[in-house]
Each structure stands twice: as structure tokens, then as C-alpha cells.
Design a protein that fits this description.
The chain is mainly beta and 452 residues long. Helix content is 5%, strand content 43%. It is built from two helices and 32 strands. The strands form six sheets. The chain has an eight-stranded antiparallel β-sheet with strand order 15-19-20-32-23-28-29-30, with no helix packed on it. Strands 1, 4, 5, 7, 8, 9 and 11 form a seven-stranded antiparallel β-sheet that branches. Belongs to the glycosyl hydrolase 16 family.
């Protein structure tokens, strides 16, 4: 079935304008109870800020509604569909040939019926239908009327040449008039299809299978090669490796190895970054003392991947801000930009965010791109990666791309966002509060890997 494919592009164009125009529609019909699935990987899975990536293909226009759900406050909705078989699209996903994907979402409806996931595969990352390869469909999933949330899912293998999946869904009801809702989309990539090598001799044939690497690492999934020597697995105990990291070197407050903190708040101290048990731990104390590290590699363009997590260890007080960032070598901000590719305002945060600052003249309003992905439990281990090329800035979480920005130069004398002359990786647990009254926290890093 290919009926959804031609409608997809028109729907996407309409959805771009629709996102800003939609107002929150209060639910007036029966709603399912707050059950459902915990989610993490689909772009815009719980529609917190709009319907970006979601849109109607057949049936009523898209709207966004408040719902009761285990992990989502909002859902995509098509109300009172005039057709018995409505259809919509979910966010697109970049893929690689041979990858095994699960595409899923939670559905509910006011009329009993069934639904299934369909995927259109493309050989082009975006654009028209010229790169269309084929469509695959999953089995139907049945659900009752007003019966809570039902998981609709399908497993697919990306065909040869595929780089993009357009994820669609078909709903079928016994009669027109059903209102359907969907949220909590979750895309999970598994191992690629195994690579099999056969060697034939005069006496036997031997078949070996090459096990895939960890697809939750961007470097493995996208083939970045071996890490550079500046990388750090933290397989030692004590202070950080001085050949790889710089730490504060002042004596603010009478303590060796302490500088003033962010914007003069508290102190950044070498004593607050310690390695043990295979993990770097940056500790933020109640008195405002916290850790800061600068990697000893300045470069223009590159790839970094960091496995980290954080958590509050105190019950009250001002919150620390964990960051992975690329800071300009020149120390000139905002003239040479800043790439906060992981930054969040609570060590126990449930969302991931990024602030990507344009290089622009001082004295004009701060110019930046902001991206957010929800939910992501920052208390759990995740792999965060950043790719900086002449073409774009790209962020990944657990191997999956979650932002891509480029260009934007011109207004107020700013340059393209990716035009920082040179920079280096910093790991920071920032104090935005003052010299005391903070909630103690830790920022843990399992490894830092840098790629050419």
C-alpha cells in the first residue's frame, strides 16, 4: 500500500505552519486512564511544545490535546474523522541499511478498531519522493473503545540504500466519526543484520558471523573509527590525567586549585573532580564549590562522545547545572560562539536540552538555537555525542540524532552557527546560585571519546 506516501510531503509542509497556530484543545470527550508506555527515543514523543513531526494524512486535521498518560501530558489527535479509515504520520527517522528498527506509539480511540505501523523507506535524507524505495507494514493491533492506551508497534529492517524512514500509521474503524489520539512514540534501533563471511577450502566450508558493535554509541553506529589518544576511559584512581585535562589552578578562598565559579558564584576547584572505580565524579557542594575540566585539545571541527549521568545528593537548595560544551579557544564570547550540546538545569532532570550560540558581536542580544528532547532521564547513563563539521552541528543521544543546526548568519552581524574558529571540550557542573545554599549533586562520567 502506497497511499500515504504522496500525502506525506504535503502534510509535513502544512504541519510546519500548524505547529505555531495550534492552541491547546481541552478534552471534552471520554479520555483513557493515565496508563501507557514510558518513552525516550522518538523525536517529539510526547508533543510537549507542539505537533512538530506529526500530521494528518487522511481524515480530520491535526490537533493537540491534554491527556492522562503515564509519561505524556499531551497527545496528537484527529477528532470526529469523517472517514472510517483515518491515517497520520509520526516523526521521520534517519536510518542505515540493515538496521533493525522498532517503531511504536500509544493509541486510543472513541470507537473500537485496529491500527498498524507502516514505513516508507527513502534513499534521500530529506526532500521529494525521488528517493522512494518501498513500503513495509506491520501486523494489525486491535483495541476497544475508550479502553485506555494500546501499544501499536512494528519491527522493520531498513533495506539496502535506505537512509530515512517515514513512519506512518493506518487506523480502521467500523464507521466514520471516531476520534483517535496518539502519543509516546518510541523508536528503538537494534543490531544491524549480521555480516557473514564464508571461506571455502577443499575439505570444509566455515561460516563466521561478525557481532555488531554497540548501536547506542553514535561512533559505532555512524562509523567514526577509533578514538584519538586524548580520549579518557578513567581507568585509574585519583586526580584527572594532567596530560589530558586542565583543572583550576588559582587559590581563591585560600584553597589551592580553586577559581571563582561561573559568574562569580562559589568556586570551581580541582578537588571536586576525582576519578575512582572507572568513573570521573564531579561533585557540587552545598557551599558552592564545584568541579570544572578543560580537555587539552583545541581544534576546529571534530566529534566527541561522552557517557554520563547526574543526580542530586541533597534534599534542598539551589540546583547545579551539568554541561558538556565546546568553548572557544580564543575565550572570546559571544564573538566566537559556544556550543552547549548538553545542558540542563537540574541534575535530576527528565529532559535533555542544548543551547547552540551563534558567533556574533558583543553588545547585541544573545543569539542562540535551543533544542529540547523529552523525556530523557538524566539520572541514568546515556551516551551523548556531538559532531561539528563545516556543514552543521549535530547532536546524538544513545546513537540517535536529536538535533541538527546549520547556517543562520547575517542578522545583527552574526556568523553561521557552525563558524566557531576553534574550540575545546569542557565538562562542568555549574553554580548559577551563589556562595552557599546549594543542593549537593554529582555529575558522573564513564568515558570521554574523541574522534577525527
Amino acid at each position: 500500500m502506497r497511499s500515504g506516501r504522496g500525502l506525506w510531503l504535503a502534510a509535513v509542509g502544512a504541519a510546519i505552519g500548524l505547529t505555531t497556530a495550534l492552541s491547546l484543545v481541552q478534552v471534552s470527550t471520554a479520555q483513557p486512564p493515565p496508563t501507557g508506555t514510558d518513552v525516550s527515543t522518538c523525536d517529539n514523543p510526547v508533543l510537549n511544545k507542539g505537533t512538530t513531526g506529526w500530521g494528518s494524512l487522511r481524515g480530520s486535521a491535526a490537533t493537540r490535546e491534554a491527556v492522562g498518560h503515564r509519561s505524556a501530558r499531551f497527545a496528537y489527535a484527529q477528532r470526529g474523522n469523517a472517514v472510517a479509515n483515518p491515517s497520520f504520520h509520526l516523526p521521520q527517522q534517519q536510518v542505515r541499511a540493515g538496521e533493525r528498527w522498532t517503531f511504536a506509539y500509544d493509541a486510543s480511540a472513541t470507537s473500537a478498531g485496529r491500527a498498524r505501523v507502516e514505513v516508507d523507506w527513502y534513499s534521500t535524507p530529506e526532500g521529494d519522493n525521488s528517493g522512494y524505495l518501498r513500503q513495509d507494514v506491520a501486523p494489525w493491533t486491535s483495541f476497544a473503545a475508550n479502553a485506555g492506551w494500546t501499544r501499536v508497534a512494528g519491527e522493520f529492517t531498513a533495506p539496502a540504500g535506505a537512509v530515512r524512514a517515514n513512519v506512518l500509521t493506518e487506523h480502521e474503524h467500523t464507521a466514520a466519526g471516531a476520534t483517535l489520539r496518539a502519543t509516546a512514540c518510541d523508536y528503538r534501533v537494534g543490531a544491524s543484520s549480521p555480516t557473514t563471511t564464508s571461506t571455502t577450502t577443499t575439505t570444509s566450508t566455515t561460516t563466521t558471523t561478525t557481532a555488531p558493535g554497540d548501536q547506542a554509541e553514535a561512533a559505532v553506529r555512524h562509523g567514526w573509527g577509533a578514538p584519538l589518544p586524548i580520549s579518557d576511559e578513567f581507568g585509574y584512581t585519583g586526580p584527572v590525567d594532567p596530560a589530558k585535562w586542565s583543572t583550576p589552578s588559582g587559590s581563591v578562598g585560600g584553597t589551592a586549585g580553586c577559581w571563582e565559579g561561573h559568574a562569580g558564584n562559589g568556586r570551581r576547584c580541582a578537588k571536586n573532580s576525582v576519578v575512582g572505580g572507572g568513573v570521573l565524579t564531579i561533585t557540587g557542594e552545598a557551599n558552592g564549590d564545584t568541579g570544572w575540566l578543560r580537555q587539552k585539545l583545541d581544534r576546529r571541527h571534530g566529534r566527541w562522545e561522552v557517557r554520563s549521568r547526574s543526580r542530586n545528593t541533597g534534599a534542598s537548595g539551589g540546583l547545579y547545572h551539568p554541561l558538556h560544551l565546546i568553548w572557544p579557544t580564543s575565550e572570546q564570547w559571544p564573538e566566537d560562539g559556544e556550543y552547549d550540546w548538553v545542558e540542563y538545569t537540574d541534575p535530576d532532570a527528565g529532559c535533555l536540552s542544548a543551547f547552540l550560540h551563534y558567533p556574533h558581536p558583543d553588545g547585541v542580544p544573545v543569539q542562540q538555537e535551543y533544542r529540547e528532547r523529552c523525556p530523557v532521564d538524566m539520572r541514568q547513563w546515556h551516551n551523548f555525542a556531538f559532531e561539528w563539521t563545516p556543514a552543521a552541528l549535530v547532536g546524538y543521544v544513545d546513537g540517535v540524532e536529536w538535533f541538527r543546526v546549520s547556517g543562520g548568519g547575517g542578522p545583527h552581524g552574526r556568523r553561521d552557527v557552525q563558524a566557531m574558529p576553534s574550540g575545546h571540550l569542557n565538562l562542568q557542573l555549574d553554580n548559577f546560585t551563589g556562595d552557599g545554599g546549594l543542593r549537593p549533586a554529582v555529575f558522573e562520567v564513564d568515558w570521554v571519546r574523541v574522534y577525527a
